[in-house]
């Protein structure tokens, strides 16, 4: 399934809670496999701090443990953030930590799922990660487990010409061999600005 490019017309097919204007910003998509090495965890955390401090708007599913940590860091900043749950958001209870950023207009919840998709599944998570990749100008993959759906999506994004970055770590060697650009945290911030 190829990645789509979202136009203003196709954005209208999304369910959005919060500021839809966030989706028109140069968003940095954050993805990371569930299982992550210690070095990748430390560097992803540093990356989240650097994105927050630089005021760079971000988007992600923020579902894996590392992605959730990144979200906590990002929400402590002032930059816009878009969260794409792997489910419908129409009847979703908004977590307390998200309410103030929503009120301030710096948070958007974005879903392409209808009300019949109220429970998260692996299939919906894969579709959600595709949405993140489609809406992001640049995508940073902290770590993609070999053979994972995250790795397959990275390879597809590279093949389609999307700018995909990863942390310069030995465990990301397979991604780098496939064309994903590897940088240290400071270089990444400069690359995605």
Describe the structure.
- Residues 1-10 have low confidence and may be disordered.
- The chain has a domain at 26-87 and 120-192: 3-Layer(aba) Sandwich (Rossmann fold), CATH 3.40.50.450.
- Helix 2 packs parallel to helix 3, helix 2 packs across helix 8 (185-192) and helix 5 (122-135) packs parallel to helix 6 (149-159).
- Strand 7, helix 7 (173-177) and strand 8 form a beta-alpha-beta unit.
- An eight-stranded mixed β-sheet has the order 1-5-4-3-2-6-7-8, sandwiched between helices.
- It starts with 7 loop residues before the first helix and ends with a helix.
- The chain contains eight helices and eight strands.
- With 193 residues, it is an alpha/beta fold.
Kindly summarize this structure in a few lines.
This protein is of the alpha/beta class and 193 residues long. The chain contains eight helices and eight strands; from the N terminus they run H-E-E-H-E-H-E-H-E-H-E-H-E-H-E-H.
